[in-house]
Structure to design on (324 residues):
């Protein structure tokens, strides 16, 4: 009698990945499914493609019936557990991607299109997706790979998931949504003219020692003084307002989470300096999409504020710390 396997099935908590990690994971899977000729593009304005393959795939859509063609791969990540492909947000995103695919088809730069997402996909979602993209003439085939299919693929390639599992199990993260709420409320606070007028009291902060301790470049600090410093009084006025106690708590929680995350990033060599850690955090906020439309500049301002008030980074002796 065959022995029963006591091995527990893997839990692929894809929603806990950052969107950059999900793109990387899709790229690694893509190489296994299509072949080493897959070209993965860096994050940014991809023109409707995160990866591209020209030729006959080795294992897509299966071990047989492969078709020669120009394949475009895209990844669509969500941090919302329980999200589905029928959500209005996802449908809106795909409507925009459809325009990009039409342009690539017109340029004869795509014949097959594959979308990978960690959203749940129903049979109706799959049918609607295929019918929608079937209307694009000269596009041979289109696939929507949902969370369930991704789990099956990762079970066949567990070594890929192993790269991310430890961080998902023991994450040091910050709640991006908390700071987004603070930024939205702060923006309204400023627009309604409730903030005190900006003073020059912070222009003389003694941050030079802290900058040296944290390897902050003179260029970065000069930019902080030019663009962020004039807004610091407004942030302080906003956070000190008794009506904004809830947002103050969100701000403090975010600063605490970020402090731990940046410390871990530095200790593990993910980034070589605090300055580059700030850049990495800002890039993650860019992934918030429309959530911070016309307000993304405040991400940099709040990070600079947290640094200047000693909420982030290594600090000098208390007596020498900047007073705010």
């Amino acid at each position: 009698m065959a022995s029963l396997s006591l091995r527990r099935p893997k839990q692929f908590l894809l929603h806990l990945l950052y969107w950059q990690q999900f793109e990387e994971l899709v790229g690694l899977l893509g190489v296994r499914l299509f072949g080493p000729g897959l070209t993965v593009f860096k994050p940014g304005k991809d023109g409707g493609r995160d990866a591209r393959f020209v030729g006959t795939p080795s294992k897509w859509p299966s071990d047989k019936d492969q078709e020669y063609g120009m394949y475009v791969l895209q990844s669509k990540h969500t941090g919302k557990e329980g999200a589905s492909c029928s959500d209005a947000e996802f449908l809106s995103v795909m409507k925009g991607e459809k325009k990009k695919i039409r342009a690539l088809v017109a340029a004869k730069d795509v014949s097959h299109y594959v979308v990978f997402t960690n959203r749940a996909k129903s049979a109706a979602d799959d049918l609607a997706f295929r019918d929608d993209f079937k209307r694009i003439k000269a596009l041979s085939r289109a696939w929507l790979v949902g969370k369930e299919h991704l789990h099956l693929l990762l079970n066949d390639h567990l070594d890929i998931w192993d790269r991310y599992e430890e961080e998902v199990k023991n994450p040091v993260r910050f709640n991006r949504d908390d700071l987004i709420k603070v930024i939205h409320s702060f923006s309204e606070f400023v627009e309604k003219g409730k903030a005190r007028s900006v003073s020059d009291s912070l222009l003389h902060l003694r941050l030079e020692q802290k900058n040296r301790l944290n390897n902050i470049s003179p260029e970065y600090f000069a930019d902080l003084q030019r663009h962020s410093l004039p807004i610091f009084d407004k942030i302080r006025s906003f956070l000190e307002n008794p009506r904004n106690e809830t947002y103050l708590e969100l701000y403090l929680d975010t600063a605490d989470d970020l402090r731990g995350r940046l410390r871990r990033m530095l200790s593990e060599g993910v980034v070589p300096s605090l300055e580059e850690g700030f850049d990495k955090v800002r890039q993650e906020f860019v992934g918030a999409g429309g959530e911070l439309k016309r307000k993304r500049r405040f991400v940099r301002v709040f990070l600079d504020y947290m640094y200047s008030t000693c909420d982030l980074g290594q600090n000098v002796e208390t007596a020498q710390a900047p007073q705010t």
